[in-house]
Amino acid sequence: MSRFAALKMWLLMLLCLSLPAAVLAPVPAAAQEGAKPASVLLVYDSLGVDTPAAGSIEALQRLLLSLGATVRTIPSDHYEPAMAGDYCKLITVCNTEDLCGLLANDVAGYTGDWLHIGPNPPDALRGKLALRTETASRQSIKLSAGGFAQDHVFVSRLPFIAEGKGETYGQMASSEGTVHAPFGISSGGYAYVPYFEPGNLSEIAIAYVLRAWLGAEAPTQSYLLIRGVTPFIDLDRLEALSEQLYDAGIPFLVSVSPLFNNTDYPAMQRYMTALQTVQSYNGTVLVNVPPPSSMGQDASILKGQMDGFLNHLAEAGIAPLGMSGELKRAQEQVARDAGFAFSDTALLLPNEAGGSAAQSEAVQPFASSPYSLPAEMLLQISRGNKIWPAFPVNLAVTLDWFESEAAQDDAVQSMAGSWLPFADFKSGVHRLGSNAHKSESLDGALLLDGKPADLQDLANPAEDELTVKQPVQEESFHLLFSVQSRILIVLIITTLMLFVVFLTIGYRLYKKKYYKSGGSL
Amino acid sequence: MNGRLRLRMRIMQTISLLKKYISPATLAALGVALILLIELFVPPYIGMADNGDYYRILYSNGLYFNMPDYTSQTLGYFVKTFGIFQYYNENSALLWSSQTMFVRLSLGISQLFGSDQQFDIRIQGALYSVLYVGAVYLLVKASTWKASRRAGYGLAAAAIFVFGDIGYLAYFNSFYGESVVLIMLLYLFSAAMLLYQRQNNDYFLLFLFGASAMILTTSKQQNAPIGLIVGLVAVLFVFMRKEKIFRTLAGLQAVVLLLTAVGTYALIPEQFVNINKYHAMTRGVLMTANNPEEALKFFGIDKQFAVLKGEIYYNQFAPIPVESVEMQEQFLDKYGFPSIARYYLTHPGAASRIFETAAHNAFSNRTKLGNYEESAGKPFGARTAAFSGYSYLKELAAPKTSGFVVLWMVVIAGLYAPSFYRAVKERSLRRALRLPVILMMMLSGLCAMAVSVIGAGDADLAKHEFLFAVAFDLVTFWTIADCACRRLWGPNAKKNSGEEDEGSLLAQQQGGQP
Given CB atoms, is B283 within the 8 Å cutoff of chain A? Predict the structure, then answer.
């Protein structure tokens, strides 16, 4: 056999061995979509704080990350023409009409894919989309998009598309009939959305525009997420909730707070037992990355602590499938490395307190990152028939932990009666790994360290068994010290008795001294 | 032999020269002043690093952090300059404290000398230094009363060693309330002892006692119970003299002091309470309980919160944020100072454990905060070793146990009990004052210790128990002075402690002589 023939044989063998591996190895969701993540530069004129547009930039950032795009956000005054060259797509957002002109001037020379949100679209877009826009004041509009509709959305100043050329998305119609315009329009790589305010249907409508503009095609799912599960909630109620949801046929996710100290305490054991129950009722555990206190955030501390908690979960038979946390935490590289790096699945929640929207570097998307939307907002939206249309993005319908049992029952009933098609998170590919354990899901199977995770509901340990272990005292010199203290006690008592004796003798002597001298006292 | 004689002669000559021109009190005051000058006003300047508490006193008094890298120096480096607000200061008083008076006065002096953009903390240091030197003078004057030359100068040297320690003096170049506590405690004690000794005008001393007590009580919220103790001792002054005007003034003063104590407690701001409240449970009750879950049941708190045992408010990450509504409603709102005090009263085991922890930290005059400026080139958190002999000695030698604290109190009270008994028997209230004043100091110290642990667990104990450390030093110094001057026993004890003067004065008054 010649050398070439031998080489060919080797290559053939290698190919045979690598083929099954390539077929069997799970691939991240973004890779499954078969597209390289689009890189987007998001330029805004203002955050619109204390206006209806407040939170729009944050919502866009979360949507873009959920759709698998790499995003860098900057205010318009930081924009430099050279920046746009590094990104394949540009989004400009005008939240304050007075500043729109400045924003348009800043990015005037840009020629790539471009989406403008807000009034006063730049001339380049006007030309490409043959746009003519108008503005109406104080309008109550009906928004509709993708089979969803929402009535009575009050807008104080509504820019709308009077004329345009391209594919349109959704509708905006005023109750007075003066406005009847598409929600958005796109043609080629250019798109325009005149109105966007988070908190109403426009949040979902803009997702349709973004999905098309980014070219995302993967089918979407919706999940139910329970937020705010901590060791301090009523854990019995959490177990009851799991059972209720299971009975209602709703698979669900819980975002759980980690516990870092005193993990050998009964409280931790009860917490773990409750999470085991959640898992046994087809619930999926996501670990929440805690927000830092005002004393700062040391990444090395957080990483170590998170590792510890994830190991505790694994040792209790719980297989978490991802992380959850505020968007701003995932945007800070240090915090992301310390808190989110354990998994390629992350559920990004709105920021509790305002953070800086701008970033010096682009934020990479996670392989899987459903977009969180409050359940009460979704339930306000009407639809044409009972069956829910497909959402434009993977959606996590969120419910905050309930203040009372009645509120919990109501929420379960409304979810069960909503006909929302909740998917099982485990049916997707998700992985999480700590320094000692690894959990993953694949086609509905939940694996912990490569073995199927135990999904049996374990009986709650008896309360008597849950006791705080006292640290063992050092008793090496116990005998010596006890003898020493006894000797001391005897010595002190003897000394005190001697004192009394001496005092008595002294007093008598003192008295006698005067008696002898013949005088009286 | 000849050389030794000559040396002895020279010492005697020096002492007689000193006696001629400088009294022991003046010597002690000058000594402490010299240390203050060297340490606080000659480079490298000594002060104390911010532990994160400065903002409370700073912003409400028109000052701000003007160093761009200020936070990086927190805990490690002393910062001596701060910005003065040039526009309307919208920061309301975060903390009501008599310390404000001294900060404002220093700020006024700074502006008077033309420095109206930047405040140098050494101006405040100078103000405190002047007051402190006066306090040391009065203390040594009282303690060396009727002392022999040798004992007097020996005590003056001891006073310089103890009260000139950098553990105390470094506070003057800081915004901590401890500097006010130290100065006022010295004035309070000296004024009471001088009243007992009848060394100065009674009205002046009464005023000095009242003013220092008031400033002491309002300098820190934890001093509110101390105000009550001092107020009770102030009631005794009413019966010291028979003149109506003195009695009225003394009575009024006692009432004002008692009301001030109540007012100080009522004015504690919410945020301040929450930090200490959190530590009181997590680093107090939960740490000393045999079963933390049982302890939580006492307060009606969910047993799951037992996992917070040992947690601190300033932890970088927590299961739920300490400032959250959940934490407020489910944990912090469920208990307060009275319920924790009740818990310790009904759980002697836990009380003894927390007292033991408190006693362990009670003999430390120095905190772990850095003393040098960053420009001095010292490592982060470096502390000066100069003039710190007493703090080191105390930290090294003091038996840090609750038993020692009790023993110390019993021995001191026992030493002063006979003279108190005699004074009461002879109905001489002025002479009977010595023991109540000593007890006032000891109880104040003990109270500060108890308030620290009940109110904030074992967090920041070296600083919280500062008042105990000062009270311990004052009482111990005084007792040693009484022993050295033979005012407690020996053939001249009565004469040295002024009992004979008082007796002759009484005889004179009874005989109708002026």
Answer: no
